[in-house]
Design a protein that fits this description.
Layout lengths: L7 H10 L1 H15 L5 H11 L5 H5 L1 H22 L6 H14 L3 H15 L2 H18 L15 H12 L8 H15 L13 H21 L13 H18 L6 H36 L9 H13 L5 H8 L1
Helix pairs in contact: 1-5, 2-3, 2-5, 3-12, 5-6, 5-7, 6-7, 6-8, 7-8, 7-11, 9-10, 9-11, 10-12, 11-12, 12-13
Length: 333
């Protein structure tokens, strides 16, 4: 690499630390939107973000850096764009560019940032972020190679259930479509906008995060629905479902504020989220145990179809100090 030898165990630690700035910036926006009892939705946000059901991002280096990293750059850029002082505009643009180049999904984040500035009515920021989105999204494809596993765009009858499964993934695979449909319906009902589609004050940052998460899942469904339906329940993408769930909670809390049904509604929502967290915790732990079992007992499990090639890659990684499977197994005993 450009930086010399890289230890993947260090990168795994960095992966999880990327969630910290995302959490604090998200909490900042939540507090501005719901100043009273803000700590309740902030706590719910933490449950949806720091969830072991995202286990793939914890041991799959590329997935963690991509999925956690793109949210971090997006949130940092969104925060800078939300500041009134124009002196931070240059920093917001740089962070938006980092967001684009952090993964292909970063282009969707950059688009959401442009939409945020448009809805806020800031013409300068909208133009600058829009230009940055167009130019650097085009540059992203210089030297780009189409993945060999790409099967093109899926059929509509496959995209819709796949997308609903993705949205409702936080509530289990069996209930995925039902949960996804219910979440989308509740988002429409609780969306913080007037009949003239004017957004509530301080709601635009949360709407930008919501649009980023929904568009990310829509793009994934568009191209991945050609695979088997269980791929919609990929752990590394659960962060999108968690973001949507947390923002929906904020919208519902704002919708029923100062009404008699406030506390009963909040109690029901919290109960469902606690149930989902408990279920996801057990699921995540079992998947970590499965991964531990693979590393402990199976030889080069990650490429069972080509064991010789896998062994060659693993031996080279061990020699260069990147990751050593045999060394890991020795530490187990």
């Amino acid at each position: 690499t450009l930086a010399g030898k890289v230890n993947f165990e260090t990168l795994l630690l960095i992966n999880n630390l990327l969630l910290i700035p995302t959490f604090f910036i998200g909490t900042y926006f939540i507090k501005k939107f719901i100043p009273n009892y803000w700590y309740i939705p902030a706590f719910i946000f933490s449950l949806c973000l720091f969830d072991v059901s995202n286990y793939e991002n914890s041991y799959f280096v590329m997935a963690g850096i991509q999925n956690y990293g793109v949210y971090m750059w997006f949130m940092l850029s969104l925060y800078c764009y939300s500041l009134q002082a124009s002196k931070y505009l240059w920093l917001a643009v740089i962070l938006q560019v980092f967001c684009i180049f952090s993964s292909g999904n970063g282009m969707i984040g950059a688009l959401a940032l442009t939409g945020y500035n448009l809805f806020n009515g800031n013409k300068t920021k909208a133009v600058v972020s829009g230009i940055a989105f167009i130019i650097f999204s085009a540059l992203y494809f210089i030297g780009y190679e189409q993945p060999p596993t790409s099967h093109g765009i899926a059929a509509t009858e496959d995209i819709i259930p796949f997308f609903l499964h993705e949205v409702g993934a936080r509530f289990g695979y069996e209930q995925g479509i039902l949960a996804g449909g219910l979440i989308l319906a509740l988002l429409l009902i609780a969306f913080p906008a007037t009949k003239k589609l004017k957004l509530h004050t301080n709601a635009t940052p949360l709407c930008a995060i919501l649009s980023f998460a929904l568009l990310s899942l829509a793009a994934a469904a568009l191209y991945r629905a050609t695979n088997k339906m269980t791929d919609s329940y990929a752990s590394r993408y659960f962060i999108h479902s968690g973001m949507i769930t947390a923002i929906l909670f904020c919208f519902i809390m704002h919708k029923v504020w100062l009404k008699k049904i406030f506390w009963p509604t909040l109690s029901i929502c919290i109960a469902f989220i606690f149930y989902a967290y408990s279920y996801n915790y057990k699921y995540g732990i079992s998947c970590f145990e499965r991964e531990h079992y693979r590393k402990e007992l199976l030889d080069y499990y990650y490429d069972e179809a080509h064991p010789a090639r896998a062994k060659k890659i693993a031996d080279r990684a061990c020699t260069e100090g990147i990751y050593c499977l045999e060394e890991y197994r020795q530490r187990l005993y």
